[in-house]
Structure formats: structure tokens, C-alpha cells
Design a protein that fits this description.
Elements: H1 2-10, E1 19-23, H2 39-48, E2 52-56, H3 61-67, E3 71-73, H4 77-81, E4 86-89, H5 94-97, H6 101-107, E5 112-115, H7 122-127, E6 131-134
Parallel strand pairs: 1-2, 1-4, 2-3, 4-5, 5-6
């Protein structure tokens, strides 16, 4: 719930009617394990507040389809950003560490990136013009 609140705050306090892209659904990278995955709490909380979710996970989609309702699943990370009001990184897959952030930003409606795993340096992301929120950093 606290992580969902972080996303809401990053989006100005309201996610109703907003499209949120989610990168990573599994409990940890390099697995399809969904047990105790943060996405199982974060996504329904955001949906309950009126957000629409598009998600991508390199290995967890099959299992996630059984556990998450009303989620649009994308075939690749940049499709998650298409027309998104924010993109949220939940699982720290290596491929998310190497995203072309300019390309990600260009696909988004609003350039808001919420990094719940602190995989990027704030100054690097903000330097590209993204509104960047991470966890436990000034």
C-alpha cells in the first residue's frame, strides 16, 4: 500500500482515469515466481483508485494473468509506456536497467517515472526531462 501511495503522490495525488505502465510483476528478477510479489498489492490498489494498468514482465506474465485482473499485458517494455501517464518499475530486471529512457519518455503522455527499486540515478533521469521518483532518497 505504501508503494501504491508513492505512485499516487508522484502523479500529483490522483490516478483516477490515468494509464499507468508497470515494468516487472514477479517477486524478483530472473524468475516467474509471483508468490509475495509487490505487484499483487500495488496494481489492485492503483486500480481501486481508478487507474488503468498496462504491464510487462519478461517471464512472469503467464502466472500474473491468473492473479491480476483487468490488466493489459504488453509484449515489450516500450509498449508499456505508450500513452502512459506514468511508468512504474516494480521488479529490477536487468533489461529495465538498460532502457532507452529517451524512447520511453517519447512514448509517454506524461513523463513520470516511479522507480520502486532505485535502479537509476536520479540526476541522470531528471537530466533527460523525466519527473523521477525513487524510494528513500532525497
Amino acid at each position: 500500500k505504501a508503494m501504491a501511495d508513492k505512485v499516487v503522490q508522484a502523479m500529483g495525488g490522483d490516478v483516477k482515469g490515468k494509464r499507468i505502465g508497470v515494468l516487472g510483476l514477479t517477486f524478483k528478477p530472473n524468475t516467474d515466481d509471483m508468490r509475495d510479489a509487490p505487484s499483487l498489492d500495488i496494481i489492485p490498489a492503483l486500480q481501486g483508485l481508478g487507474a488503468t494498468i498496462t504491464a510487462y514482465d519478461p517471464e512472469g506474465e503467464r502466472e500474473a494473468r491468473h492473479l491480476l485482473k483487468d490488466v493489459d499485458f504488453a509484449a515489450e517494455p516500450y509498449a508499456v509506456a505508450r500513452d502512459a501517464d506514468a511508468v512504474v518499475i516494480i521488479t529490477e530486471w536487468d533489461q529495465f536497467r538498460a532502457l532507452d529512457l529517451d524512447r520511453l519518455k517519447a512514448a509517454m503522455t506524461t513523463p513520470v517515472l516511479v522507480d520502486l527499486r532505485n535502479i537509476y540515478r536520479p540526476e541522470d533521469v531528471r537530466g533527460l526531462g523525466l519527473d523521477y521518483t525513487s524510494i528513500g532518497r532525497a
